Amino acid sequence: MADPVTQTRAVPVPPEGAVRAVLDHRVLMVDVDAVQVNFSRFFRWMDEGYSELLHRLGHPLSRILAEGAATPVVDARCNYRRPIGLDDVFTTMSWVGRVGAASYTVIHRFDDVHGAFAVGECRHVWITTADGRQSPAPVPDWLRDTGITRQEER
Questions:
Q1: Number of neighbours of residue 23 by Cβ within 10 angstroms
Q2: Is 4 domain-assigned?
Q3: What stretch of H or E contains 124?
Q4: What is the SS3 assignment for 57-95?
Q5: Beta bridge partners of 118
Q6: What is the C-alpha to C-alpha distance for residues 52 and 25, in angstroms, rounded to an integer?
Q7: Within a domain: 9
Q8: What does the pLDDT look like over 99-149, one tens digit per residue?
Q9: What Å distances lie between residue 7 and 24, 41, 64, 138, 152, CA to CA?
Q10: SS3 content of the chain, % helix, strand, coil (to 5)
Q11: How many whole angstroms separate alpha carbon 35 and alpha carbon 127?
Q12: Which of 44, 81, 82, 131 has the fewest CB atoms within 10 Å, i.e. is most exposed?
């Protein structure tokens, strides 16, 4: 019988034509605790997906930092729909979701052969780092164009 909890939660999908970073993984011994994958590994995999997404958008994090900007995470969460374990194979898919004036959300979906087993979300802010000071700045157009702006949600 299907688990009613995992069957009722909506699983996000990227908008048609969205730039996505897709990475394949295998659960290794370093990823698990005594029972299943340790929760902290999902945040590492989300970070890897985010880095790959920036590369696919033509703006790797090294370039962003060299240009005097940064994108710290101010909110991160992950919903674990069901466990996975040692030697399981899965894919992460990451894409830009909502985009505001100075912040944006990156969605991370984790799938194995049975479908989505976790969904994560990280909200980033765009800042400048000129003169060693951190100041909020508008999300650049190249990033804004990849997501759903607040006006489009209305």
A1: 15
A2: no
A3: strand 115-125
A4: CCCCHHHHHHCCEECCEEEEEEEECCCCCCCCEEEEEEE
A5: 80, 110
A6: 14
A7: no
A8: 999 999 999 999 999 999 999 999 999 999 988 899 999 999 999 988 776
A9: 24, 24, 39, 38, 28
A10: 30, 35, 35
A11: 40
A12: 131
